[in-house]
């Protein structure tokens, strides 16, 4: 920002520090369409064979499209559930006169900071007991529940910033509380809904531990588990294939990130994982 | 009840139910499970009663009377309705079975040899040795490995033994024979005496300290301040690049690091021509493993601090900075005396918050080194995961894993309360932060 200082020392330091990231991500793209001689640094030939997993199943692995569909169902269900539950609960905590409102708020706050991953063992046993182990529904519900404290808190923050006058006017004109919320307030918090929606979709899309532990079966596998099992399999160790699957897996994330970067920055700044 | 409250209940109910069942209950259950010896072997719903050879060995080691144990462990061959039925279903010679049922019902033999010798003398004796050998096992009766669904069944079977047992002995046996889980405090005792515990505690401290200081706070500060001094466009590029590790799915992100460090990976491709021997840089030595564990987690962790610190720096009034420059402050002085004091609270917040999340995070370590080489990078949270959900010998120790997790849960609860009290979230970072 300041004109009085030279930029180049900072720029050099930053560029140097960023080299690993640039290297890793540019080779992620490059390696999916090229072959490199063993021991070589630069690719030597162009090929599309690393993308063969799209039209033929890899031996012993589930069908990629089935897995992608599972991931899509998983991530979008989590998103829809988180959105609908948080947007109602957030409104109740922000605006409605319910008993124990303060206590609810404190609870949400504490849970938000609470490291939910430590609960995985108990959750695993609960799902076994209630028979939702190895089902997509089970993982969806668990993932949603663990995201709720953050979601409710974010939505509450948005509702807080909506002027009371809007609701007053609506009530004056004879609308019910519900209509006021649905017709007048909800459109006001659209940015929050978009941000939270994108965030929870991406969290679901990228989640590895919950699906792996709670639904390990092949028919409910999601992309994270698919990629991990591919790497764990010693029979075909081929980084270019891993990267192609990885790029296929990450493309929706990158696209969403490019579109919603500003909104996401703020949630990631709030800190949700290590 | 006011309309507002009624709507409020409807609105908050789904959240309440989900959070109660899948968030609060697990917290409680982690505590409850940690006082049990639940494992794959005991199951989670309850068990049956079964006397196994290894159980008898254990009991004999504990000083249980040898003769009694031998009698429990012995087998006998009985000609009874039940054993005859088993033999019939297995397709043994009907004429032989008929003879046994009519003339020898209720006879007992103490060894297989004796029983087979007896069979050979019968009228309808088995015609070949093979037939004899296939017939006799059906009449075998033994308590060993037989599964009793209730304690009553087992006790009844024990009282039928030829050697008479005292009620005390029967009780002790049935207790020991229970295969389900029982309440115990052994997990915590085990935790204090196992040398592993010291190792994972030490590992956790190393992991949290280095990642936190070097990256989540240290490097994040550097990124925030450095990008602050750059033109907007350049700053945006760097911030976006440093967010990549955070938004990438973790499995893919770790694959990239593996590619960098693998035997035939990128580092080797560069260093080999320079005469450095080819090796797996990530798992080669303990030091290397730690370097990469810290790097992998640090690259993700740096972005949160970067974003928070950046927004705090932008909030500093510009005239303050201009004035300092007019007064001749160099960049270091500007950072030291103007920027850093402004960042006091965000730094404290990031430190405490990230400390807690690092303490409980294990996903990246699981995917990269999996605690290796040996268990030199096995941190507390990963040990809980390994014990309860994914271990090498297959018998998952839910109880012990839960006890390990409980330690983290307790720390988590305490630190969450500290957050609430000292950081006054509302004012610090929880203001509606996503502007339109």
Task: Describe the protein's architecture and organization.
- With 274 residues, chain A is an all-alpha fold.
- Chain A is built from eleven helices and two strands; from the N terminus they run αββαααααααααα.
- Chain A folds into two domains: 8-52, no CATH class; 64-270, Orthogonal Bundle (MetI-like fold).
- Chain A has helices at residues 8-30, 64-95, 101-113, 120-130, 136-160, 164-172, 177-188, 190-206, 209-214, 223-232, 239-270, and strands at residues 34-35, 45-46.
- The longest helix of chain A is centred in the first third of the chain and has 32 residues, at 64-95.
- Chain A is globular and about 75 Å long.
- The mean pLDDT of chain A is 85.
- Helices cover 67% and strands 3% of the residues of chain B.
- Chain B is built from 22 helices and five strands.
- In chain B, α11 (195-229) runs antiparallel to α18 (344-360).
- At the A-B interface, α1, α2, α3, α4 and α5 of A face α1, α11, α12, α13 and α14 of B.
Give a summary of the structure in a few sentences.
The complex is a heterodimer of chains A (274) and B (436). By secondary structure, chain A is mainly alpha-helical.
